[in-house]
Amino acid sequence: MADTAHVPEGWQRVVDDVEPSTLPQGSNQSPLDVLSAMDVMKIMDCGDGWVVMSNAAEPLLFASEESTWYGKMFAGSMRQSEFLLLDVNRRPIVSATKPFSWTSQGAGVKAISANQAETAAVENDLGSIQQEFGVFKRRLLVRDATPNHAAGTLVIEAAITDPTFHITLDGQELGTIVQPKNGMGVATLALQPGALDPFRSNRMRALLLCATLMVCDMYWSMSPGVATAFKFPLPH
Questions:
Q1: Residue 198's Cα: distance from chain center in Å?
Q2: Which residues contact residue 58 at a Cβ distance below 8 angstroms, ignoring those fewer than 6 apart?
Q3: DSSP-derived secondary structure letter, 205
Q4: 111: which of 63, 64, 86, 155 is 20 to 30 A away, CA to CA?
Q5: Rounded to an integer, what distance in angstroms lies between the CA atom of residue 11 and that of residue 3?
Q6: Span 140-159, pLDDT tens digits
Q7: How far apart are CA 10 and CA 39, in angstroms?
Q8: Which residue, among 194, 217, 218, 216, has the nearest Cα to 204 in the 3D structure?
């Protein structure tokens, strides 16, 4: 059984049957390996945060947000915030840090890996997410920071009247981000098989998950943090 001593009550039911990692110290396996071959990832609201589920309803990661209630109330999506992806034992493995901005929103995304003694953390750049202004379209640009391996900039965009965000590379669609109907979850990130082969795929999946959190926050008024009177989940 997983150690759930520090798991919020709302997450308890999805963690109870998850075994903790048994990797030996010094293993080269990345925490992002849990995303391998995951072409469909569903984000669900657990009442006290969000959980990222596989298409087979297996919990993969948790999502949380660090910001202030007054930032949400008075600045909305312009606020300074940090979105975190955490493993099933609630250790942060990816952070997307978004500074306050009056205009376009952007975030730097880093992978966080604890050292063997778990007394410090090393952050490695995964890439960036940047909102691009458009009159008739909502658009985010996702860039991989891997040296000499970036296959190009992914574009996530949707027309003002289109509820579906399309993920494209050089005009070719690789996947979608949608808000499920009838309250069945927060968002679904669906990729075409092999769509991320030109990239270091697990890194790009983490970037796209962070971009999905930003889509939820900026365009759907939903975030894994505490709601306020001026920021609350929209009905599905």
A1: 20
A2: none
A3: H
A4: 155
A5: 12
A6: 999 998 876 668 899 999 99
A7: 26
A8: 194
Instruction: Give 201's DSSP letter.
Output: H
Residue 142 tokens read as 């996702």
Q: Count the alpha carbons within 13 Å of 148 in the hemisphere toward its beta carbon.
A: 0
The CA-based angle 165-54-189, given to 5 degrees, is 5
The neighbouring-strand residues paired with 139 are 132, 157
Q: What is the DSSP letter of 181?
A: G
Burial class (CB in 10 A: 0-12, 13-18, 19+), 133: exposed
Residue 151: the pLDDT is: 80
* Token reading at 216: 């939820």
In total, the chain counts a number of residues equal to 236
Q: pLDDT digit string (tens) for 110-150? A: 998 765 444 455 668 899 999 988 778 899 999 998 876 66
Residue 236 is predicted with a pLDDT of 33
- Region of 6 please: left (phi>0), alpha (psi -120 to 50) or beta: alpha
142 in Cβ contact with 208 (< 8 Å): yes
DSSP result, 3-51: --TTS-GGGHHHHTTPPPP-PPTT----GGGGGTT--EEEEEE-SSSEE
Residue from 61, 138, 71 nearest 98 by CA: 71
